[in-house]
Amino acid sequence: MTATTTTSTTATSAEKTGARTSEAADVITGARDRIDALDDRIIGLIQERMAVSAVIQEARITSGGRRVNLARELEVLGHYRDALGKPGTGLAMTLLELCRGRV
């Protein structure tokens, strides 16, 4: 009974990927590995952007300016929208939110 339980709880790569063939499962598994690596790089870049943003905010505040430059944020929103379409605006808003107030 233990062997049956072990077999039934161990999913095949086709079951894990939703693929109907082992060839498709291999393609999906490889592509998912690539996506995971890309996500790690994206997260690292976002963390780097947050650090650079903190430097900018510190310099702006130290010089007597405001923490946030709304004109610049509008530029960023436009850039993402132009590059990625409407969803890019939401992505940029999230990115700007992550980068605010880290001083």
TrEMBL record:
**SUPFAM superfamilies on file:** Chorismate mutase II
* Family annotation (InterPro entries): Chorismate_II_sf, CM_dom_sf, CM_II_prokaryot
Q: Does the keyword Isomerase apply?
A: yes
Give every Chorismate mutase domain span: 22-103
User: Source organism's superkingdom?
Assistant: Bacteria
Q: Which ranges are annotated Low complexity under compositional bias?
A: 1-14
The GO terms this record gives for MF are: chorismate mutase activity
Q: Report the protein name in the record.
A: Chorismate mutase
What organism does the record attribute this protein to?
A: Streptomyces aureus
The organism's taxonomic lineage, starting at the top: Bacteria, Bacillati, Actinomycetota, Actinomycetes, Kitasatosporales
